[in-house]
Model the fold of this input.
Amino acid sequence: MSQINVGLIGFGTVGAGVVELLLNNRELIKDRVGAEIVLKKIADLDIVSDRGVEIDPGFLTTDALEIINDPEIDVIVELIGGYDQAMEYILMAMERGKHVITANKALIAKHGRILFETAEKYNVDIAFGAGVAGGIPIVRALREGLAANQIKAVLAILNGTSNYILTRMTEEGLPFNEALSIAKKLGYAEADPTLDIDGSDAAHKLTIIISLAFGRPFTYEDVYKEGINGVYPEDIRFAGEFGYCLKLLAIAREADGQIEARVHPAFVPLDHILANVNEAYNAVYVEGDFVGPTLFYGLGAGRRPTGSAVVSDLMDIARNHIKGITRRISPLSFARSPAKELTIKPMDQIITDYYFRFSAVDSPGVLSKISGILGAHNISIASVIQKRREANGSVPVVMLTHEARECDVRKSLELIDKLDIVTEKTVLFRVEKKTGI
Done:
C-alpha cells in the first residue's frame, strides 16, 4: 500500500486535533484513501507541553526547516498562523515540490494571489478548507459541490466568539463587556479578542468565500467591516420589537458586474433560518442560480472541528498523490479566470433598509425635524417607536427605513447629529431581508 509522509508545522490547539484524528481514525482514513498517511515529523517552538495526545518525542523538533528540507516528506501542514514566518515556510515548501495545507485564513486573504501563483509554478496543491468556518465544508462545497452554479448571494455567521457574545446579550440582556467576560472565562474568546469582535476574522473568511464564489483572488482590504463592540442591549431589545434579531453577518452579493462584500452587525428577521444560529455555532447560507438556497451549519472553530477540516484536505491531496495527479482542481475552482469583469461595490453605494436610534430632547417637533432631513435625502420611514424619557432626560426615537443608499444615510445622519435637539450620536444598523429561507 502507498504511503504519504506528512510534516506538521505548528503543534497548538488545531495541530493537536490533527494528530489526534490521524491517530484515532488511522484505519478508517487508510481505507478511504487507499494509502497510509504517516505523520513523519512535527515542528513547534514548544515540544515539551502536554497536548493531550501521545507522541514519540523522536517525532518532535523545534526546527521547521528540518521538515521543509526533508525529501521524504510529501505534504506540509502549516498551522502556526500569522503572516511573515508562515508565508516563508509555505513558499519554501512549494519550491521543494511539496503540497501545502494551511488553516491560515488571514494569510490566504492577504496573500492568496502569490500563494496560488507559486503553487501553479511548482505544480503542487495548496488547500485551505480549514480556513473558513472550521469543520463546515464550505470551501469544498464552493469548489466542487456548487461549481456548476452562478453564486448569487452568501449570507453567513462566520465568527463563533461574536455569535456567542450576541447570544448572551440577546437571551440575558447583558451589556457587551459582561458578555465578553463570560466568553473569555468559557474559552470562547481569546485573551485579546480584537480580531473576533472588530469583524476582522469574519472579513478574512469572507475574502476567501468571495474569491471562491467569483473566481478572482480578492484581498482582505476589499471587504468592508464593522465589529460588535458598538452593540447595546437596548438595540437588541428594539430589534425584537420590530421582529428581528441582531447578528454579525458576512454578506456577499453579485449584481451588474459588482460584488457587495461586507461584514457588520445586522438585523435579521426572526423567521430567517440564520436567526436560530446561536452560541458559538457558524452557518453559511449560499444561493446558487440552479441549486437555489443551501445552508451549511456547524462549529466554526476548535481543536476537533478544525482538525477535521485539515485532515479532509490531507486525504484529498493524498488521493491525488497516489494517482500521480496534481492540481486536479485549481485553488479557486476556476481553470481560467471568468471573462466577466467583477469589481467590489463601494460601501457608500450599498442599498438596504436601516435601523436608527436617535437620542433626542423631550420637546415638540423633534420627529418632524429628523424626518424632514431624512426625507430630503430620499430616506423613507417604515416604522417608528418613541419611548419614554430616560434618566438623562433624553427620549429614544427608533426608526426602521425603507431601502436607502448608504451615502444618503451617512449625509443625513451627519446633519441630524448636529441638531441641538439630538443629545448623542445616532446608532445605525443595517437590516438584511433580501435573502432568506
